Every structure is written in structure tokens, then in C-alpha cells.
Automatic annotation (TrEMBL):
Span of the signal peptide: 1-18
GO annotation terms (biological process): cellular response to oxidative stress; hydrogen peroxide catabolic process; response to reactive oxygen species
A GO molecular function held by the record: heme binding
Binding locations of heme b: 178
A matching Pfam family: peroxidase
Gene source species: Trichosporon asahii var. asahii (strain ATCC 90039 / CBS 2479 / JCM 2466 / KCTC 7840 / NBRC 103889/ NCYC 2677 / UAMH 7654) (Yeast)
Family membership noted in the UniProt record: Belongs to the peroxidase family. Ligninase subfamily.
EC numbers on record: 1.11.1.-
Cofactor note: Binds 1 heme b (iron(II)-protoporphyrin IX) group per subunit. Binds 2 calcium ions per subunit.
Name of the molecule in the record: Peroxidase
Positions with a binding annotation for Ca(2+) 2: 179, 200, 202, 207
Entry keyword set: Calcium, Glycoprotein, Heme, Iron, Metal-binding, Oxidoreductase, Peroxidase, Signal
Amino acid sequence: MKVFGLLAALALTLPAEASDPVKLRRLMSDSRFLSMVSPCTMGGKTRSSPAEWLRTAFHDAADHNAAQGTGGVDASIQFELNDPANAGATFPSVMTQLSFYLMEDITLADLVALGATLAVGSCSGPTIPYYYGRETAAGPSAEGMVPEPQHSTESHIEKFARMGFTTTEMIEAVACGHTIGGVHAAANPTITNETFHHFDSTRSYFDNNVATEYIQDVRLNPLAQPESDGLARSSDTRVFSVDKNATMQAMANDNQDFLDRCEAVFGKMFGMVPAGVQLQGPITPYKISGSFWPNTRNGNFVLPSNTGSARLYGQKGQWASFELGYTNRDGSVGTDSSLLVVDPVREMFNGMVEVRDFSSKMVPIPPATGLGSITINVVMNDGSVLRDEGEEVIAFDDTILMDIGNEYTCKYGETGLNMSAHVLGPYDPNDKVEFLLRNGVAEVTAVPATYRGARDEYYNVYNIFIPDWTKYDLKNNAGGFGARLTRANGEVHKDLKADAFYRMSVIQKCVEGAEIPSTTAVPSGVIARRSRQTQAPCPPGKEACDGRCVNTQTDLEHCGGCDNDCSALSDGYVQCIKGRCVLGENLP
């Protein structure tokens, strides 16, 4: 059977219809997730990541019709990026960031609300109770639903009323939404000529300055200018003055009153869902939890730097010791002190989250013993041991491991994709191995793999070759992949990178010595491995790393040296530029 014929009849799995509260509770203190909005200054001088996450939730909720029971926070904004109301880099960027954490059994709609909730908290704003159970929309809503600065006051009142807000709540929602962040000239040239025009003097702190400065006639807010400056530049002024500034005066008088009002109005906004959707909760973070994202590259199973973390939530000052350990595959306690490197405690999220990062510093984990779990051992000041529903143990299943090294999983030519996974022995011909390919809207296609042979005495290799991976919408920063093993006895094992899927952006071009496929469509798995030869000296400008010659100034997996793997640092935009890993917005 040709590969094209094979892929034509594959199983398709739709996105999650309900979120798993366990995964959401872990994510609420996940240091990698929080790091995109914490501290509140994230985004640099020209962006405010927390403000962008909050703004995304509002624009997503803006299509809600309270009377008809339609719209709300449903992630429909992912289909609405061409709506003029969503112009600029903000919304595509946020949806890409959130998609990195779109796990099995978590809806994108719940992620939109969670991201906004955490964004407010990271800026010292109120703790908004978090409810889950939102369903993700299958398509866009109609354009023209979002209140925009150039719209009339009557239009603002009508649109907020449609959403279910009173006039007072409209004023509160605008003021609370504009206490962080600002306006970009690139997307709003008729409002400001400043690259990033802040709403108030404390754009990275959630406080009532947006109200006090307005009442004091301090015109920092680019949307709170005199009405004579035009509709767009006076948008906030016109909203705030609907009740003759009574609400703004009350919020300016008392910061706690401001925070309380924001908690209530955002709680209402995040709860806007279509009729028939029943939210559950509220839920809170686990007191103790952790996660890690191991990598298998070219046969070596490691815990790269910046990928594992153990976290405590709300325990500052209450514990005496905070240590980590590990167990082997069989459950026995790991004793190799060099295998697990643990960093000192660091704080984030205004001190509410304490983190110990860990890795194996690229030291391979022996395939004979494998890895069963990372254990978090916390002794409190009173001598008790901190536990929370078993979250003090981060379990791991190394039965099947995606190999994302460029000798096993790599891009061939413009569209070819070679993928390999290692499966723990013994070999059973009745085992079924599949590669799971997730597209940009979280639909998952299962592709059967072919047994290739033994990798070593512990693992066997399974493989596929896809002649044209673009047919499956595997976008670099929206799609993803993983592997699933169904044993002959019915047991199911997966490697989906902690259920968030590996990103296409981590796959590099096939290199010399890789599993190079044929240039024509061939049956899945019929790929010949090139025999290895004794490596010749590298030419000038290249260095021998892992048996091949690479340019350490540009090679993503050996950036600045053989032991520095840029792709382990991020699931998003990352490049090796002049021997340095450059992430995200720092890219030229």
C-alpha cells in the first residue's frame, strides 16, 4: 500500500469537548505557562503580554448574546483574526501562545479564560474564581460584535447590553480592562503615533490609576481624551461619563473597591457561555505539583534544561525543605546523583508560586533502568510532609518515546516528513503503533507505523514517511505530533509531550546519516538507514557534534556548542543566530 493510500483512510479525533480539571489545576501554577505573563512586565517595552491575554478574552466574549444564549468565551476568536476589530499582532500571537498548552482533554475556550484569569493575577490584580467546562466553537461569529473606539456612545451601550452588562458594568469592564497595557500605533494610527501608548502611569500594575488619573484630568490614556479630539480618542471618556463619572469617581476613591468591582465584572465576563453549557468549579491550583518535558534525540533520552519544574502554590514561609528525587521504571528509588540536576528555589506570580527547575543536563537516562517518576519531597515547618491528591509524584511512562533528533524524525525536502518512535521491548507483532498528527484546529489524525527493527536490547524502532505533510495542516506553531502504542493486551501508552503534543517547529531538516527516505512515495516504513562511516575531519567553520559536522553559529540543536540545544528551550519561535538561542519577539 502506498503512503498516500494509507493516509486517506485514517482515524480522525475531534478536539476535546470537556476539560479535565486535574490538568487545569496543574496548569494554573505551571511555571512555563505563567512565564508568558509573569511578571507583569512580560512583553518588553513595546508589548504587554498580560494585557494581550486579557484583551483576547474580552474580544472572544464580545459576541455573547445574553437574551439568545449564544456566543461568549468559546475561542471563536481563533477564526476571527481577519476581523478589523482584531487587527494587529496581539490576537494571533496570543492564540499561538495558548495553543502550546492545548492538551488532550482541555478545550481552547477554557484556556482563553484561564489565560486571562492568570494575566490579571500576575499584575497584582484580584483573584478571579475560575470555572471550567467551556466548549470550543467550530467557526467564527459575525463581524461587528466588538465595541470599537470609533463607535458611538450609543453603540457601546447597545453592545455591552447585548452581552448582558449593565451601564455601570460597562464602565467597570472598560476601566478594569484598561488598567494594564495600552494602544499600538501600528494597529491604531488614528489614535496615537506612539509605538506603545500606555493607558495610565502604571501600565504593568493592576490598580485604580486609570480611574484616578481620569478623575484628576491627567490625560495619559490615549482613549480618554476630550470629546473634541474625535470618537476614537475619546472612546473611554464617553463611556466613563455615561453616568456623569459617578462610577469612575467611586473607583478612584478606593483601590480595594476598584479591585472588587474588577473581580466581579471579569468573573461575569469569563462566565459568558452559550445556553446549555454548564460551567463547573471553581477550582484552585494544587498546593504541590510539577511537570517535565523530556526529549529523545537520536536515541538519547534526556531531560533538557528549562523543561522540568516542581512547584509550590501559596506555601511561602511554611516549609522547611523542598527537595526532588526520581524513581526508575520499576519503581525503585533512583540513586545516580548526577542524573537529576535541581536548581535553587525561585519565585514567580508575585511570590505565590515557588519553583525548583530540574533537568539531567543532557546526561542520557539509561535505557535499562528508564525513568518512572520525579518525586517532590516537601517537609513543612511543623514536620509534616506536604501532599495534595498525589501531585507530589510526577509519573512518567517511557514505554514509547518519540525521537525528535534529526537522524530519526526530520523534514526531507520541501514536504517530506520522516518520523520515528522507540517502543520498549519485548517485540510483539500484534502491538499497534500510531503517530498522532494534530492540525491547527486540534483535530488529530492517527497514522499507522511500521516496525523497523531493534534499536538496542531494550527498545524497538517504528517509523513512517509522509511524502507531503502540508496536506494535514501541521502548521509549525499550531499543529503538533506524538505517538501512541496499543499493546496486544489492550494497554495504551502515549508520548504526547505531557499531552500538549510536540511542535512541528522542533523538527529539523534531515542530515547526513539520517533515515533518508526515497524521493518517491513508498510503503510506510520502507526507508533504508545509511550506514555510518568513520567521520572525516570537519571543514573550516564547522564542528563535529554527535557524529556529524555542524555550523554551531546556526544549527538549532548545537547552538554555540555541541551541548546547547535551542529547541529544548521553547515550543514556539526559536532560532540559532550567531551561536545564541534567540526566542520569540527577539527574532529579527
